[in-house]
Design goal:
Pfam families: Aldedh. Belongs to the aldehyde dehydrogenase family. Keywords: Oxidoreductase. It is an enzyme of class 1 (oxidoreductase). There is one protein chain. The protein has helices spanning about 45-60, 65-85, 85-95, 100-120, 160-170, 185-195, 210-220, 235-245, 270-280, 300-310, 330-345, 380, 400-405, 420-430; strands spanning about 15, 20, 25-30, 35-40, 125-130, 135-145, 145-150, 175-180, 205, 225-230, 250-255, 260, 290-295, 350-355, 370, 390-395, 415, 435-440, 455-460, 470-480. It contains 14 helices and 20 strands. The radius of gyration is 23 Å and the shape is globular. It has a seven-stranded mixed beta sheet with strand order 14-15-16-13-12-17-18, with helices on both faces. A six-stranded mixed beta sheet has the order 9-8-7-10-11-19, with helices on both faces. α1 (about 45-60) packs across α7, α3 crosses α4 and α9 (about 270-280) packs across α10. It is an alpha/beta fold and about 475 residues long. Bound molecules: adenosine-5'-diphosphate. The site of adenosine-5'-diphosphate has 13 residues, from α7 and α8.
């Protein structure tokens, strides 16, 4: 990997403002080639406890800083990310596999959360409430919850950390970040820039390594007052159980099973454009990726054929290759799951319109795939495929589409394409999802609240709401006046 600033590439743990080794290491690999990229210091329970202690110590002074000071450091951190956009993107493509242009886009997206929360840091207002007694006054203030543990996935190795760290640090909390073991290099590069931005020792710590040991240390600590997690619903459930003992606050951003409904009155070209962006971005590995295309019968053939044409034209390549549009899947387990879902769908009557097999590039590359005649019995109807597979279902009426869309325990994102204004309102209100894209396939932005309903999680990230999850409300009654 050629970097303009090789100092961004760190393989140690970042605890209390220091770069530390550990007794053992683990290997990070490039998913496009399977080749080893780096040996990373492997944190366990002890290192995590040290990071928690550092964060606790740092909290005492960080919370007392002027909001303006915290804001300035967050803003500087964001600027530094943009100054090093190329290098950060190269690190990301190397360890995560996404095309370099997408990686650059993620760097900007990740930096936007730091900028956003730099601004929000200054707007944590309280209230004065008209009192219920003549000789008393009621005040409401907001205070940081304390030390926060952030557990993040590999699909957005920078943005999932900054979305949490930006809000936490703005609120006055300190943080211990546990990145996914597939993508620790992005997290440590972020720590290099945090240090350069002047963020004091202990405020932002990074421990990658033994997932179970780190998880247990974070979850069993009574110092850690909140966990913000992005990942699978299974792990989210486990963390929720583990949080019970110390009644930790939780923000959970879990799996999805996003429907994408195309009504007869939709504009096909726009719908296909949105479908491509939402389905094949990051090789289908985002929690808001479409998992089910529900298409009304009058437009079914036209839409599915246009989608297959667009999907089969995607350039599948190593993320560093010129014009690459779809990279590899993250690992063998991801490839196995995609293969199983496709085989199951074909067995149950699914018709392959394009793709349906491993790509000739080998490794974990898979062809962009479109399957017509999908039905609710197929595994890809109820499970998140997390790969470049578009399964298309047929429906007749609006009521049927809504019932199908909501027939899942998940409720993160939903999309639909329609022009009739009455239908737009009815469907938008009826969909059980935290995020609804109407005639639009890309919904992620730092200015809007991101999060799910049902078993897709709790809490919201980004936007003016995102900081609330890191604040406690305190009410003071001043009597004897
Ligand atoms: P994915 O399938 O996307 O990898 P996971 O939920 O397994 O989703 O992983 C998301 C994050 O949660 C990663 O950082 C992973 O290491 C972490 N993780 C997985 N299992 C645990 C656990 N038992 N305790 C704490 N963190 C965990």
């Amino acid at each position: 990997m050629q970097l303009k600033h090789p100092a961004l590439l760190k393989t140690q743990l970042y605890i209390d403002g220091q770069w530390r080794d550990a007794a053992t290491t683990f290997t990070v690999r490039n998913p496009a080639s399977g080749e080893p990229l780096a040996e990373i210091a492997k944190a366990g329970g002890d290192e995590t406890k040290q990071a928690i202690t550092a964060a606790e110590r740092a909290f005492a002074s960080w919370r007392k800083r002027l909001a303006r000071e915290r804001s300035q450091m967050l803003r500087r951190w964001s600027e530094l990310m943009l100054e090093h956009q190329e290098d950060l993107a190269a690190i990301m493509t190397s360890e995560q596999g996404k095309p370099l242009t997408e990686a650059k886009g993620e760097v900007a997206y990740a930096a936007s959360f730091l900028e956003w929360f730099a601004e929000e840091a200054k707007r944590v207002y309280g209230d004065i409430i008209p009192s219920h007694k003549t000789d008393a006054r009621i005040l409401v203030t907001k205070q940081p919850v304390g030390v926060v543990g952030a557990i993040t996935p590999w699909n957005f190795p920078l943005a999932m950390i900054t979305r949490k760290a930006g809000a936490a640090l703005a609120a006055g909390c300190t943080l211990v970040a546990k990145p996914a073991t597939q993508t620790p290099l992005c997290a440590s590069a972020l720590a290099v820039l945090a240090e350069e931005a002047g963020i004091p020792a202990g405020v932002f710590n990074v421990v990658a390594g033994d997932t179970r040991a780190i998880g247990e240390a974070l979850m069993s600590s009574r110092t850690v007052r909140k966990i913000s997690f992005t990942g699978s619903t299974g792990t989210g459930r486990l963390l929720m159980r583990q949080a019970a003992d110390s009644i930790k606050k939780l923000s959970l951003e879990l799996g999805g099973n996003a429907p994408f409904i195309v009504f007869d009155d939709a504009d096909i070209e726009t719908a296909v454009k949105g479908a491509m962006a939402s389905k094949y971005r990051n090789t289908g590995q985002t929690c808001v990726c479409v998992n089910r295309f529900l298409v009304q019968e009058g437009i079914y053939e036209a839409f599915t054929e246009a989608l297959a044409k667009a999907a089969s034209g995607l350039r599948v390549a190593d993320g560093f290759a010129e014009g690459a549009e779809q990279g590899p899947l993250i690992n063998q387990a991801a490839l196995d799951k995609v293969e199983e879902h496709v085989a199951d769908a074909v067995k149950l009557g699914g018709k392959l319109l394009c793709g349906g097999k491993r790509h000739t590039l080998g490794g974990t590359f898979y062809e962009p795939t479109v399957i017509a005649d999908a039905n609710p019995q197929m595994r890809l109807a109820s499970e998140e495929t997390f790969g470049p597979v578009a399964a298309c279902y047929r429906f007749k009426t609006e009521a049927e589409a809504i019932a199908l869309a909501n027939d899942t325990e998940f409720g993160l994102a939903a999309y639909f394409y329609a022009r009739d204004i009455g239908r737009v309102w009815r469907v938008a209100e009826a969909l059980e999802a935290g995020i609804v894209g109407i005639n639009e396939g890309l919904i992620s932005t730092e200015v809007a609240p991101f999060g799910g309903v049902k078993e897709s999680g709790m809490g919201r990230e980004g936007s003016k709401y995102g900081i609330d999850d890191y604040l406690e409300i305190k009410y003071m009654l001043m009597g004897g006046i």
